[in-house]
Amino acid sequence: MGEADILDGKAVAAALRAKIAEDVAGLKQGHGVTPGLAVVLVGEDPASSVYVRNKAKQTKAAGMASFEHRLGADTSHGDVLALVERLNADAGVHGILVQLPLPDQIDEDAIIQAIDPAKDVDGFHAINAGRLMIGQPALVPCTPVGCVMLAKKALGDLSGAHAVVVGRSNIVGKPVAQLLLQENCTVTICHSRTRDLPSVAAQGDILIAAVGRAEMIKGDWIKPGACVIDVGINRVEGEGGKSKLVGDVDFAEAVQVAGSITPVPGGVGPMTIACLLRNTLRAARAIEGIIQD
Ligand code: NDP
Q1: Is any atom of ligand 1 closer than 6 Å to the C-beta of 235?
Q2: Could you tell me the pLDDT band of residue 293, with boundaries at 50, 70 and 90?
Q3: Distance 212 CA to ligand 1 centre (A)
Q4: What's the confidence (pLDDT) of residue 114?
Q5: pLDDT digits over 211-245, tens only?
């Protein structure tokens, strides 16, 4: 068998961003509405700071308004809550994203549940999670949407495929499983207590890895010809002691077995911000009562 097709998330994300920018321009011209995304960052976690900067840059590039709120690491729970409430009431803000993780003095779940579900562009609010579960229109978490887009890019119709999801977090594993179910896949969800994970994983026509363990999934865990979507972002020591990013899948092995595979970096990662912009556009349309042109 030859090498797997590499799913170029960068290119797919760029095309999606270009389409969003076009739609944003149409919304401004046709309705006088500029979608606005507010991002709240508490503290100075370097990775979070880079994400927030990229989000702001790409929001502006898509023609949307970007509002950045950077608060000190010692900000109180009450002050973050008050900011979320102000943003909920701000008519220029259609999407609110509170960058996680938050410092210990802040109750993360209470902050997420305080966001107006109509502006919850991360899709983490219980209302949106519940709507996704029962198949109602919802703001759906960005990374899972990106995963399914890439799987569809590789396979077209996913109906009837067996999808194995490794990981059951509320951010990735559970919502991606729901989306795959909506695509008529047969879905298996695995986690740290799954027995004989390699043989369960090897049943997947689609294998989604969202674990957070560097290169855990080996070539012989993969069904020949499967579509492998690697969500993991793990920093490890590379050649010459320099750090590098790897996924949850052993790419060098997997590329010999899979039919298609996402690289890390350059696979799922770029899709996440593009899907955040997509959610912001959707939220703006819904809040302003604009039916898609
Ligand atoms: P969590 O730590 O919240 O969840 C990890 C999941 O993996 C848990 O369900 C856990 O099982 C399971 N797990 C852990 N160890 C094993 C094991 N040995 N065997 C089987 N299952 C295991 O992580 P997230 O879902 O938030 O993130 C997963 C990865 O995706 C991380 O590397 C993260 O950085 C990356 N990520 C990337 C994004 C992107 O934009 N590309 C966005 C979000 C995350 P259990 O529930 O039993 O503990």
Answers
A1: no
A2: low
A3: 4
A4: 98
A5: 999 999 999 999 999 999 999 999 999 889 999 99
Pair (165, 255) in one structural domain: yes
- Reading the block at residue 271, the tokens are 């899709």
Domain containing 98 equals 32-116
Q: Grade residue 181 by pLDDT with cuts at 50, 70 and 90.
A: very high
* Entry pTM: 0.97
Mean pLDDT of 42-67: 94
In a domain, 234, yes or no: yes
Between helix 142-155 and helix 173-182 the angle, nearest 10°, is 40
- The CATH number that applies at residue 74 is 3.40.50.10860
146 and 263 in a single domain? The answer is yes
Nearest atom in ligand 1 to 216's CA:
18
pLDDT score of 95: 98
Torsion sign over Cα 166, 167, 168, 172: negative
Helix (H), strand (E) at residue 67: strand 65-71
CATH number of the domain at 193, please: 3.40.50.720
Q: Which of 12, 168, 211 to mutate to test the pocket of ligand 1 (most atoms within 8 A of CB)?
A: 211
Helix ranges (H only) for 37-186 are: 46-61, 77-89, 108-114, 126-134, 142-155, 173-182
Residue 238 within a domain: yes
Does ligand 1 lie within 6 Å of residue 173's CB atom?
A: yes
